[in-house]
Design goal:
The chain has 88 residues and is mainly alpha-helical. Helices cover 82% and strands 0% of the residues.
Length: 88
């Protein structure tokens, strides 16, 4: 199994996860402050969407690593990875 080794990819994913962590802390604060359910649901939805994007980034990393072992370059795979990010 290949690992995420490209420094820029790791940094981008870590930044995304830190933002998600902040969003979830905000949701916890809303619950503690007894905010309206609609406000909590909106923030949960945004957090879930952000986590889905992080997951799709990892799927893109997996696709990239699988294709690179078969002589396909990142430049060749980029349209596929961009499409995954756009429609996920």
């Amino acid at each position: 199994m290949k690992h995420m080794r490209q420094k820029d990819h790791k940094e981008a994913l870590n930044l995304r996860l830190k933002r998600i962590e902040g969003q979830l802390r905000g949701v916890q604060r809303l619950v503690e402050e007894e905010a309206p359910c609609e406000s909590i649901a909106q923030q949960l939805s945004a957090s879930r969407h952000a986590l889905d994007k992080a997951y799709h980034t990892m799927v893109g990393c997996l696709i990239e690593s699988q294709l690179s072992g078969k002589g396909v370059t990142y430049t060749d795979a980029k349209p596929l990875l961009d499409m995954l990010a756009r429609y996920s």
